[in-house]
């Protein structure tokens, strides 16, 4: 198959290419859903992974982003992004089939120590392919269709993720309950299906045309050093790195906590994750509207405290004796986390684009991705070490009211194991937010002003769209009538 770029793409070439990109997106989403998130954690726990190993697995996807430098060098050396993407995707997706075959053909030798190096190669090859793919898509997708096309692609991928992850979670829980001896085999089949789906996506990419582009031969390290000499962009890197470190020291262990400490099944965990995704999907447009109208920095200043409160909320999960009470608290936390993350992640991406000079935007953003990847990778490793340290330790706070006839004890909070980790992450996130004030962004608006406008907008939308709004209007009208008659 000819993987060389073409000098000129026809309109028909572009239309066919966009269909192939959507096909690859659906195949890739199938692959990542079956081999990532709660499923890879569940498999690792089944294989006896400790907290440090679980942290390493969580760190791998971001750790390998440092190797995007390889992709930049390859693209500038060969000027063939399709060839690089297809070959590296092939190298990334074949190991998944190998992992899946291990428990089926050689169950006696399957250990987490064997799985982790294979996963590292999988993520490394995928990172190199991903960086090349981003540059390729920027030239393939027409600029006027950029937002609409990727919105459509993302919505299809998210819909597939929701349906597939819930279906597979129910299947895993069923096997766990009725045929526990076959659970590891089930994960093996999942990895094989994921690898085949990934290879199907690679074939779609191989059929996608690439417009020819000649890249300059400037020294790579000189190019990447320019953003570090920009004082304001450097301050953004400090904040962004501190924030992702604080978030990732705790977030990868949410699933571990729910599985190990609470004993929740995968169907519960996936359901809560879907709840968070839905919250994010339905609120990201609101965040985008206010980010464009005011500033990204303001949106981060609003969303970050909400996320910090969610981290603190995790410390209270599990203190109730009734399952429904814990699930209700988890549902509220996941809804708020989805809401906050939608604004924070969108604004972190946009503020990087905004502060990067037009001529050097790719260089600035590559530097940002590489620097933050280091801290994103270190955080879960540090979290695993801390989780091991806090194992067997606890802090209990009770309140007691005593009287002549009765005494009432109230269980306020109990920190143990992962709860310490969540509280530590919240404290680090609070420190990180204080670094945000040093970043300068044009068009900044005070946070309190934006909060008041958001409240007013939400109130207006409620009145326009929901029953509660009609009730509020009806109450106001009745009150006005009484005022006119009696006052």
Automatic annotation (TrEMBL):
CDD domains: MFS. Gene3D superfamilies: MFS general substrate transporter like domains (1.20.1250.20). Keywords: Membrane, Transmembrane, Transmembrane helix. It comes from the Bacteria. This is MFS transporter. The chain crosses the membrane at residues 21-48, 54-75, 87-109, 115-136, 156-175, 187-207, 236-259, 265-287, 299-321, 327-348, 369-390, 410-433. InterPro entries: MFS (IPR011701), MFS_trans_sf (IPR036259), Sugar_transport-like (IPR052528). GO terms for molecular function: transmembrane transporter activity.
